[in-house]
Design goal:
Layout: H1 3-11, H2 14-20, E1 35-39, H3 44-49, H4 51-61, E2 65-68, E3 71-72, E4 75-76, H5 81-90, E5 94-99, E6 107-108, E7 113-114, H6 116-127, E8 132-135, H7 140-143, H8 146-165, E9 169-173, H9 177-180, E10 182-183, E11 186-187, H10 188-195, E12 201-206, H11 217-223, E13 230-233, E14 235-238, E15 245-248, H12 257-266, E16 272-275, H13 285-298
Parallel strand pairs: 1-2, 1-16, 2-5, 5-8, 8-9, 9-12, 12-13, 13-16
Antiparallel strand pairs: 3-4, 6-7, 10-11, 14-15
Helix pairs in contact: 2-6, 8-10, 11-12
């Protein structure tokens, strides 16, 4: 996920349903794989052009679990929660997770309470049967000062408390700046991991994004074993012009995804594995979605 993805997300039953979504997965052996799904940003143009047809094709590929990337004004991809829930359910799909940006204006420091927008966001996520509500961005103003950053880590814990009331968990999805930006020599990522309550807030580790921040997924997993129950599985290759990295088909890049996933699973994580690919190297997004699912299935996920 990148800044373009952030813009897309931004514009773009209840407690018991969410709690039951993973069923026995949460009670299974930590070394067994959980559920595998697709981040719909991977097929964003298809979803924009024909959401119902795209979901039908994904179901035909064998996908069951999905993570959305378009919610705003209480609409998912232009549909009300009840309308979109029916579309998803009718195709045998489950919206296990969703990306919605939590911004500073969603917390009122005077009242110590959330904005109505954020309360509705969590309510609508529960109506979709989600297990996770994940914010995919952290504003630069929050990252500018240590005190401000730490303050919002406490707010993230409050987000976790709110989501817990609806049978869900709050999550944060990393990019690259969390590993390149520091306070007194300590990365934002390390400060975050020390500050949030893991019972309330999940860090959705993106195995590819961190490369542009100078980090390696395997090293991060070693440092924080058992902390990554929800994973964005992404491979990366060097980008042709930018000198950075771009996402690729899983297994074709340098992220050592198979070993990293195994490492996460063996330390009690990877209950939810979400496929995401944003660049396609000549393939179509739907072709990549199909191939990525086949690859993970062959790996035992």
């Amino acid at each position: 996920m990148n800044c373009n993805r952030r813009t897309f997300v931004k514009t773009g039953t209840l407690a018991l349903t969410g709690t039951a979504l993973l069923g026995n997965t949460f009670c299974s052996s930590p070394k067994k794989a959980g559920v595998t799904g697709l981040q719909l940003y991977s097929v964003r143009d298809d979803m924009k052009a024909d959401p119902t047809g795209t979901l039908t094709r994904l179901a035909e590929m064998g996908y069951v679990h999905l993570e959305h990337a378009s919610y705003g004004d209480r609409l998912f991809y232009g549909y009300t929660p009840s309308e979109f829930r029916k579309i998803v359910d009718d195709r045998g799909l489950k919206m296990i997770s969703g990306h919605v940006e939590f911004v500073s204006s969603d917390w009122d420091r005077n009242t110590n309470d959330f904005s109505d927008r954020w309360k509705y966001t969590v309510e609508d996520a529960a109506a979709m049967g989600q297990q996770y509500v994940v914010t995919p961005w952290l504003e630069e103003s929050i990252r500018a000062r240590y005190d401000e950053f730490r303050y919002f880590m406490d707010v993230y814990n409050r987000c976790g408390e709110l989501c817990k009331k609806w049978g869900m968990k709050f999550g944060y999805h990393n990019h690259d700046f969390e590993f390149s930006e520091k306070f007194d020599g300590k990365t934002l990522f390390d400060i975050m991991m020390e500050s949030i309550d893991p019972e309330l807030v999940v860090v959705q580790l993106d195995t590819g994004n961190l490369f542009n921040g100078g980090a390696v997924a395997g090293d991060v997993v070693t440092r924080y074993p058992g902390r990554f129950e929800n994973v964005h599985v992404k491979d990366v290759i060097p980008a042709a012009e930018s000198g950075k990295f771009e996402s690729s088909l899983i297994g074709e890049g340098i992220a050592d995804v198979r070993n990293v996933l195994g490492q996460i699973r063996d330390t009690g994580g990877a209950r939810v594995v979400i496929i995401e690919q944003e660049s396609y190297q000549g393939r179509t997004p739907m072709e990549c979605a199909r191939e990525n699912l086949e690859i993970l299935r062959n790996w035992g996920y």
